[in-house]
Write a structure and sequence with these properties.
Blueprint (H helix, E strand, L loop, with lengths): L3 E5 L4 H13 L3 E7 L6 H4 L4 E3 L2 H6 L4 E4 L6 H10 L3 E5 L6 H13 L4 E4 L6 H11 L6 E9 L9 H4 L7 H4 L1 H12 L4 E7 L10 E7 L4 E7 L9 E5 L3 E4 L5 H6 L18 E7 L2 E7 L7 H12 L8 H20 L3 E2 L1
Parallel strand pairs: 1-2, 1-4, 2-3, 4-5, 5-6, 7-10
Antiparallel strand pairs: 7-11, 8-9, 8-15, 9-10, 11-12, 12-13, 13-14
Helix pairs in contact: 4-5, 5-12, 9-12
Amino acid sequence: MQQIKTALLSYGMSGKVFHAPFLTLHPGFELLGAWERSKHLIQQDYPQVKSYASLEELLADDVDLVVVNTPVDTHFEYAKKVLEAGKHALVEKAFTTTAAEAQELNELAKSKNLKLTVYQNRRWDSDLKTVKSVLDQELLGDIVEAEIRFDRYNPNLSPKAWKEGTNAGAGVLKDLGPHIIDQALYLFGYPEAVSADIRTLRENSQVDDNFDILLYYADKRVRLHAGFFNREMLPAYILQGRKGSFFKLRGDVQEDTLKTGAKPNIDDWGTEEPGMQGILNTEINGEVVRKTIPTLKGNYYNLFDGIYRSITDDTVEPVTAEDGYRTMTIIDAAIASSRQKRVITL
């Protein structure tokens, strides 16, 4: 099996929790090491790998794929250097800070015949996979309204300075926003227009921490919300169709499981906790049916497998740079709409 030699641009939480476990589990990847600036931690977990002292040292090595898992405002600079060095790239969300940056990276990757993937792991969440299955089965009829939420209760400021500062990548819109915007585009396609209300609610916060975005389609409206003042769990997905409705709580367990140090090869990987199933209320064969829908298993491994196949078989990336660009156009439009208090036509 061909080996894709891979390096990380950091080994903090994302490198340790979201990337290294899958890169070392998948037989098609070889984890070479990580660029570490101050703390040198990767060799404690993987003694055989390297700790690079600089980006230049990493790019000079025999690396095929580089994971750009640094703060958002560095993504464009680092991803551009990675592509210019002739390496494939996997870039975390938010892909960039603007749509223009995303488009430049997309064009650069194409010009060099390199694979450029956006790390949208939540397409492989158990809840989104279940929502997609309900839609694919056309159980609700034509969708007329939908809502996707990412709720948390955390009124305190984050200790991570890059999340709370005035840099271009800070704020909930570019933190949680890329997840649910990508999910909306994945489920429903690209909208015709966008309106948004982006707010700052936490005391002493310098960044946006609450948003409502409305996506306008010819035949439906899709609402997106994220914020930090929701103690009670609300449905993360609300789908309203001409035949019926489907509600689903956000119940994917993969992030929490990974944070315990568990490896993603256990038998019940991605299995949701009991009681989190979605509720379907619809008409089937002329009869109104209300029932729970079993939740599909989540599996981030499939994202990495898709990346592997895109490189070795020259197939389309599992999440393309064009996908990342389209998400950034929605973010740019949302910012403009909130500032100008108007609907932005795309």
